[in-house]
Amino acid sequence: MGVYLRCCKRAAFIVTTGFDVATFHFLLKLFTGVWDRVPIPRDDVAWRGVSRPSQRSLSAAGALGLVLHFLNSTMAEISLQAIFGLTPTVCSRYLNFGLRILLETLKRTPEGRISWPTRPAKFQRYADIIAERHPSLTGAFCFIDGVKIPVAESLDEATQNAQYNGWTCSHYCSSVFAFAPDGTIICALINAFGSWHDAAVAQDLYAKLQNKTPEGYFAIADSAFPRTRQGISSRIQTPLKKNSRQSRLLRAKGRFDELEELLSRNRELVSARQAVEWGMRSLQGSFARLKMPLPADDCEYRATLIEACARLHQVRTRLVGINQIKTVYEKVWQDGGRTLYEEFESMIFRDIQASDRIKRYYDALTDAMES
């Protein structure tokens, strides 16, 4: 990481760590204090031992770079070991320790927080942003969507059945996110069993909509989030299903003005839903590790990794801004092809690893040095 810190090339930072130079240094300032102070857990060393950062194979900058390389790539750990000059045991230990302390620092900084709005003015500000582009969606303040993150198959039958999703015939853990119109996450329900329906995962979110949301405000979602629950029908709006009963009744009764108004509003709901698609793509498109199967039997590790990615997304969105992410970051992430960034859902894991942008970056760097 010393080369990166001296050259400070923005594109190199965005490709390999997911952040520009200024944001990396912001994270490094938070990370360094904990990395230098806390001893790395080891089975052969007393847990109350004194930290000795000068004896470690990586400085705080190197350790943070290692963790961010890992989160932003799909490459195998053996490649990271070669890049950072670490043995397999040390690399694994540093990754686990670095990921945990990174998450703890993100929890304590305002830029990394994930919180539901508490002031009516905040709801109104979000609603105004959406209404400015979609005038008929007065009161909409956030977007909801679920994501299924692949996990490996467990040898334990009960665990495997809980993570098996019958619709896709694959193993997942399920998460639900609510995005504000500024790109930040205001609710994250993560690491539920893959066999659960999105509506089951979102129960805490339903409670927030019912009990912690002022009257007149609603979330935009899709039909995976049913509105039949008592008290929730006015708090979630979804686009019409194909051949919906409501539109057929209006057409049958000849109430074409009402039908056109309904369809016009539906078009705006569909258009507004693209915001959550961008949010999910920004989350998974950057943190490519979420595309690779996570350990099936280590629930705590999965939760740590997913939450760390979500909070890093918060930092990037708050410090960089949604417009800058769209115009600068996405251009770098898509360099050399849009496949991995936008079409990974239809790719097999072998092709996902082969398309890793960080591996391509180091391959090109090696070729340039050899020539």
From TrEMBL:
<dbReference type="Pfam" id="PF13359">
    <property type="entry name" value="DDE_Tnp_4"/>
</dbReference>
<keyword id="KW-0479">Metal-binding</keyword>
<dbReference type="GO" id="GO:0046872">
    <property type="term" value="F:metal ion binding"/>
</dbReference>
<feature type="domain" description="DDE Tnp4">
    <location>
        <begin position="144"/>
        <end position="314"/>
    </location>
</feature>
<dbReference type="InterPro" id="IPR027806">
    <property type="entry name" value="HARBI1_dom"/>
</dbReference>
<protein>
    <recommendedName>
        <fullName>DDE Tnp4 domain-containing protein</fullName>
    </recommendedName>
</protein>
